[in-house]
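[Automated response] Your request has been received and processed.

Submitted sequence:
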Amino acid sequence: MATDLMDDDGDDGFAMPRKNRDSEEMDITPMIDITFLLLIFFVVCSKMDPTQMGDIPEAQNGVAISAKDSAVVFIEAAGKDKVVLKRIDGTEFSDDEELQTAEIVEYVGKELKSTMGREKNHVMIMGDSEVKVGEVTRVQKIIGDAFEDITSTYIAVKEL
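Generated structure:
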């Protein structure tokens, strides 16, 4: 009777029962292990230095517009939901929107007729990254409504 419990090989070792797997199932455990190993590798090897800047590629499209050849309106953020509009010489436009509209139209008209030996034929709206798009659009609309011969305005972002 004791010989019935022994294997055919004669080993007394314990043998693990084998699972009966369906041939259609795929064992994904090695793939998960490799995925986590690669994830850990990239996390450990990557640099988390926000001061390191990459090279910004040159623009492929668009036209370079010089501020010297343009009527420039600066838009600066001045607190939450408030902006300050400035001329190229740094003087501010009025805070009252109706008066501001008249001042912008007068300023842009005067800049476009500049007699410094070259004619300015562009309007550039320059703002920092904290200015909301609605403010830029409002200034664009003021200029577009006042000067029908200007077909486009240029928007520039000031890097800090």
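Summary generated for your ticket: The two ends are 90 Å apart (CA to CA). Helices lie at 2-5, 29-45, 97-112, 133-146.
If you did not submit this request, please reply to this message.
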